[in-house]
C-alpha cells in the first residue's frame, strides 16, 4: 500500500477546496448575481451535525441498547447536503440565476463538501480498545 505524506494530502485537499470556492465565486461574479454564494455556507455547515452527534454516541459492545443520536446527525447532514445541491436548482427554476451559474455553483459546492469529508477521513484516528 502506498503511503502519502500528510503534508501532500493537505496541499492536494487545499487545492481542491480552493477550486471549489473559485467555482462558486465565479458563478456569482461572471453573471453578476450573488445569490448562489449561499451554497458555501450550507456546505460548510453540513458536516457539523454528523461530527457532533457522532461524538455523543456512548454505546459499547456490552450495551445492547441502540442510540438514535448518530442517525439523527447523519439525517441532518444529508438534509443539508441535499439542500446545498437543491438550492441552485431552485434558483435556476425560478429564473433567478442562469443555467451555467447553477452548474458552476453545484459543482463548486460539491467539491467543497467532498474536500471536507475527505479531510475528515484522511486524518481520522481509530481509538484502540487495548
UniProtKB/TrEMBL annotation:
A Gene Ontology cellular-component term: Vps55/Vps68 complex
Membrane-crossing segments per the record: 6-30, 37-56, 76-96, 103-123
Tagged with keyword Transcription regulation: no
Pfam families in the cross-refs: Vps55 (PF04133)
Primary location class: membrane
Topology with respect to the bilayer: Multi-pass membrane protein
Alphabetical keyword list: Membrane, Transmembrane, Transmembrane helix
BP GO terms, sorted: late endosome to vacuole transport via multivesicular body sorting pathway
Subcellular location(s) per record: Membrane
UniProt record similarity statement: Belongs to the OB-RGRP/VPS55 family.
Annotated protein name in UniProt: Vacuolar protein sorting 55
Natural source organism: Ascoidea rubescens DSM 1968
Lineage: Eukaryota, Fungi, Dikarya, Ascomycota, Saccharomycotina
